[in-house]
Sequence to fold (299 residues):
Amino acid sequence: MRASLARLLACLPKHLYREITRMQETNADFWQRLEEIRLRAGHHAALTFDGRNCPLPIVLTKEEVAAAFADMCDRSVYAHAESLRAGYVSAFGFRVGVAGRIVVEGGRILTVTDVTSLSVRVPHHVPGAGEAAVRTFWDRHGKRGLLVYSPPGVGKTTLLRDVAYTLSRGERALRVALIDTRGELYGEEVPVACQLDVLRDCPIAEGIMIATRTLSPQLIICDEIGSEAEANAVLSTVGCGVPILASAHGGSVDEIRSRPPLRRLLDARVFGAAVGIRREAVGYAYTVSDLEEGAACYV
Fold:
């Protein structure tokens, strides 16, 4: 078990921790197959395991959820104020989605209070997960950006993590700048052999501009773009000759195109190709679409 995961589990109510440990003892490769841990006040805790939602025989109190949240914030919720406005905190390299009462003032989200549920994403490094994207990138001579898309929770972050690892090491290693906004792409695990520079807990738009100005990257990777500010930063950086590999939520290229900031990027031909991910009964399948020619093939 990784040290960061052990620290996270120590924040859980003790009876939930014991139940997860019991399941680990009876399921091979448990930690690699575990995708999410969900805590809900007044309801059963649950795991997402092998893509299935599995309720546990444990009902948590509101006080237990609140205590776990405080521990995940290292007893300093205020320090996470900025990310809470976006509905999450970063705890020991894990993204924790937070639900409760949303405090809004002047149309702007200020924070989340009276926390009622926590959703812990468990990241994994899966060697080969980014193979289709890496091959597509080199097919375009490493000069064109890529857009990775899928519905939430299907595997975009896992793919990006493997792509960052693969493209920043070996004989063809590139200088890769990784904008890790939620601290979940690479926490304590950046391999020493990689030419990988990580901007942790940095907003995407600002991170792209910082990386371009100061890190001399040959590729910039970022997760879940979609705002106007992010689109502007991507367009500026591509104009400087640095390709962008980014991800976005969506089930198809047409769905992606329906969102104005992303449509701007597609119309500007920022991305040479799009890689879609879908979960199948055994593993994942990938759709590679050539955005310049409009053709699609399945790999």
